[in-house]
């Protein structure tokens, strides 16, 4: 059993409005991916949430490394409340290093969160797309089979290497 929660991992902060929040204090530490993505979250979610609730939002950044969360949990030094977790949430939930969502405590109906997991809910959508340089490859791949057909289209491929995808 995890000694301390990393709050509602992956839960969209905006989903908590207008619910009376059950946080221990007047501060919430939210961790996301940084850069322009997090800047957009700051403007669209974090600032309005703080203004609506009076809860101070402190932000942090991470790159998705579950080892960091595991280390905080194992050493009982958890400092994050909400994490924009990405693909690894399911694995971390199964490993028991993040908390499950207590929907009753939040006063929310879990049926309203499509695609939810025990430890998180979807907050954004993304896609992996295939691109190629038409100047170098006039007849590019039309199907996924074409992409891997080294006879038809010889050369190297640059693909995301992630066991979590």
Written description of the protein model:
The protein is elongated, with a radius of gyration of 20 Å. Helix content is about 25%, strand content about 10%. It is α/β, with parallel strands linked by helices and about 160 residues long. It has helices at about 35-55, 65-75, 90-95, 105, 145; strands spanning about 25-30, 55-60, 80-85. Residues about 1-20 have low confidence and may be disordered. Strand 1 (about 25-30), helix 1 (about 35-55) and strand 2 (about 55-60) form a beta-alpha-beta unit. It has five helices and three strands; from the N terminus they run βαβαβααα. It has a domain at about 15-110: D-Maltodextrin-Binding Protein, domain 2 (3-Layer(aba) Sandwich), CATH 3.40.190.
The CATH homology group name of the domain at 13-112: Periplasmic binding protein-like II
Tally of strands? 3
How much of the residues is beta strand, in percent?
A: 5-15%
In CATH terms, what is the fold-level topology of the domain at 13-112? Answer: D-Maltodextrin-Binding Protein, domain 2
Spatial strand sequence of the major β-sheet: 2-1-3
Give the C-level CATH assignment of the domain at 13-112.
Answer: Alpha Beta
CATH architecture type of the domain at 13-112: 3-Layer(aba) Sandwich
Average pLDDT for all residues: 80
């Amino acid at each position: 059993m995890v000694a301390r929660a990393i709050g509602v991992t992956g839960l969209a902060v905006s989903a908590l409005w207008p619910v009376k929040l059950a946080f221990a204090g007047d501060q919430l530490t939210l961790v996301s991916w940084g850069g322009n993505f997090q800047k957009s979250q700051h403007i669209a979610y974090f600032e309005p949430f703080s203004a609506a609730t009076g809860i101070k939002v402190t932000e942090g950044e991470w790159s998705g490394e579950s080892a960091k969360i595991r280390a905080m949990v194992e050493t009982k030094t958890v400092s994050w409340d909400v994490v924009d977790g990405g693909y690894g949430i399911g694995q971390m939930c199964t490993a028991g290093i993040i908390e499950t969502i207590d929907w009753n405590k939040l006063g929310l109906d879990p049926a309203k969160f499509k695609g939810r997991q025990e430890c998180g809910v979807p907050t954004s959508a993304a896609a992996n797309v295939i691109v190629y340089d038409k100047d170098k490859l006039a007849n590019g791949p039309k199907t996924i089979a074409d992409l891997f057909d080294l006879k038809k289209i010889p050369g190297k491929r640059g693909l995301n290497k992630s066991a979590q995808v």
